[in-house]
Amino acid sequence: MNIKELGFSTVLAVFGTIVSNYLGGWDVALKVMIFCMIVDYGTGVLGAIRVQTLNSEVMFWGGVRKAVIFIVVGLAVMLDELVGNESPIFRTLALYFYIGREGLSIVENLGHLGIPLPAFVEKVLDQLKEKGG
Question: Please, are residues 50 and 108 in contact by the beta-carbon 8 Å criterion?
Fold first, then answer.
């Protein structure tokens, strides 16, 4: 390993540690949320390619929205600290909320990709679209 690789690795490790601390630690809930965000983004791009609606501006703003989610989780961590919560209540609620939203988006993207979904999932998605639209 040369000095440039060592320097880059060190900077990356320090950055990762700071971000992980800011987000309340590297636990299963954070891992699941990040995994869901990556899968949602990937399946969203694939779905847009399939229906020929790929748009770089939409992709950019989707990435911005995902970055803002990390800011909200960081704020939830600080709120837990502010009120002296022994358990990360606000952080957990924020993570579970965003995991759920990302999961719904993944399921919707799978539908765009033509992957068959169970009838009850399609029914729930239709109901959510009616209420949201």
Answer: no
Instruction: For CA atoms 109, 112, 113, 116, give the dihedral sign.
Output: positive
CB-based contacts of 30: which residues, under 8 Å, 6+ apart?
Answer: 20, 23, 24, 73, 95
Q: 13-36: per-residue pLDDT in tens?
A: 877 787 877 888 889 999 999 999
pTM of the predicted protein model: 0.80
d(CA 41, CA 60): 11
In the chain, what's the furthest Cα-to-Cα distance?
58
Per residue in 106-126, pLDDT (tens digit) is 988 998 898 888 888 777 767
Reported residue count of the chain is 133
Q: Helices in 26-118 by DSSP H: which ranges? A: 28-50, 56-83, 89-112
The pLDDT value given to residue 128: 67
CA–CA distance, 37 with 20 (Å, rounded to integer): 16
